[in-house]
Amino acid sequence: MLSSDQHHTMDFNVKKLASDAGVFFTRAVQFTEEKLGQAEKTELDAHLENLISRGDGTKNWTEKILRQTEVLLQPNPSARIEEYIYDKLDKKLPSKATNAELLGQYMLDAAAEFGPETPYGSTLITVGEYQKRLGGAERELLHTSATTFLTPLRNFLEGDWRTISKERRLLENRRLDLDICKARVKKAKQAEAKAALLSEEVDKAEHELRVAQTEFDRQAEVTRLLLEGISSTHLNHLRCLQDFAEAQATYYAQCHHYMQDLQRELSRCANSVSGPASAAICPNPVSSAFLSGPSIGAAVSSSSSSSSNQKPRTPTMEQMQLPVTGARKAKVLYDYDAHDVSELSLLADELITVYTVLGMDPDWLIGERGNDKGKVPVTYLELLS
């Protein structure tokens, strides 16, 4: 047997359900009649309409930019789906090697089988190590882009925009209720004029209209304030866009930096193979100490690629003692480890004096730091006026 409280609760729930269904049906009728041109519709003010249009545009373009950036950073659709699932489950995606890192590891494994002391094996080691470094740079790009660009865009769509959409739906319901009340007042006054309705019914309809108008105005203000916040969203996304561009610039500069170093290594290898008493072995990959990320906007010499197949001409000690011509200061952009006694090791941000001597390779200069002197690569320097 049900108690009286349970009966009361059931009655209340049934009545509320019936009331909600009635409101929904009335709104549906009003909406349909508006579409058919059979009912009047309250128009929003021009400022609010512009805010709504701007908000819709922001949402649509943010979605497109987000999706295409995801495609750019992760072309594999299966991998993107996996990342999406892990993100929804709020779990950390297992760390995976990038394609460049996998390629580098395959090269190292092949070198172990063919013999690291053979020309082919030692070259595989050199190229493989640089492929892994390229993969590491790519991994850093993916992490930075996800943190500084993709996540803020996704947070806007899944957070702020959902709140705005909810309030807009509520505003539309308040508008429908307002227009329903307007229609009732109009019909009540027409019936009163025909003496078919008491004035009390007109007063009731007008009271309901005033309440509906107040609720509509209040909801319109809430929606307006939320949509005006889109301007702050644009500023936030602007900063995120700048961070993304900086991450890309850093990545491509690192890749360019690594590939220039690899070309020099391969050039040394080719020169050793063509030498008269060649051991036909490429040198070990250069120390990672000088492979720190380069600064954005570093000037890079374009002559390195054209001379990559030419043996760098090492100046003799006599040449280094020639009178200095065109000496100038230079700022070191990246760390550099000397590969032999003819070169000078460099530290990022230090200032040295550089000049050239007759017969030197154009990719190199003579650098001086106190009593130390040796060859330095042009691509690691910013020449100062």
Portion of residues in helices?
Answer: 55-70%
Q: Structural class of the helix and strand makeup?
A: alpha+beta
The overall strand count is 5
Mean of residue pLDDT values = 80
What is the approximate shape? elongated
Output the number of helix runs.
8
Strand content: 5-15%
Strand arrangement in the largest pleated sheet: 4-3-2-1-5
Can you walk me through this structure?
It is built from 8 helices and 5 strands; from the N terminus they run ααααααααβββββ. The protein has 385 residues and is α+β, with helices and mostly antiparallel strands. About 12% of the residues have low confidence.
Give a short synopsis of this structure.
The protein has 385 residues and is an alpha+beta fold. Helices cover 63% and strands 8% of the residues.
